[in-house]
Here is the input.
Amino acid sequence: MKRITRFFDQIAASIHFFKTHRLKRNYRRALLFFAILLPVCVVAIIAGQRLHQPTPSSSKAAIALSTTKKKQQRHKATSNKTKVHTAPKNIDWTAPSEKQAYPDLTQHPNITLDVNLKKQRVFIKEGDKTLYTMYASTGIDDSTPRGDFAIQDERGYEFFNPNEQMGAHYYTSFYLHGTYLFHTVPTDVGGQYIKNEAAKLGKEPGSHGCVRLSIADAKWIFEHVPTGTPVKVY
Here is the structure.
């Protein structure tokens, strides 16, 4: 600001000089023009430099904003990654799917059985809370019906389907009264578990529409889950 004031003072002094000294009219006009133009140009250059020069505080703010944007972009990229659900390489198809105890249905009387076909899991839920997760193997070629069902009266220790040449233990019906069941991994005509079919548990579909479970999980449903319990397949 002081520089600008000083330049304007110089302009005023120059004008006064040319008015008080006798010079030829043409010279006087030319010198007066340059005396005015030169300081104005210098003032304009200085003002332009100050206008484009960032203040320390604005530079810090710009750096902070840039850093924040980069963090937000990294967070967004991380949050957009799809979580892939992987099963253990070796699933014990004879044992419970989890090390924790099965839910106490006297404490959780309003459970639902959610069958997730994509994840090959059965989630024992109460409201939005998952109480227990079971490994499953559902129907090949999307043969397990989707929708809302309920546990039915039909249940038993074992069955054998001669058309499929396979059976299972601890079956519990949830649709069409004995057609679509929760049951163990399959057994052969002699009642022995078929190991190569059992190996699909928790990893891929393998049944003709029923929901295969580990021996322990199927037995728990057979013995504890009451008729009328909601079943959701999706």
About this structure: The two ends are 74 Å apart (CA to CA). The mean pLDDT is 82.
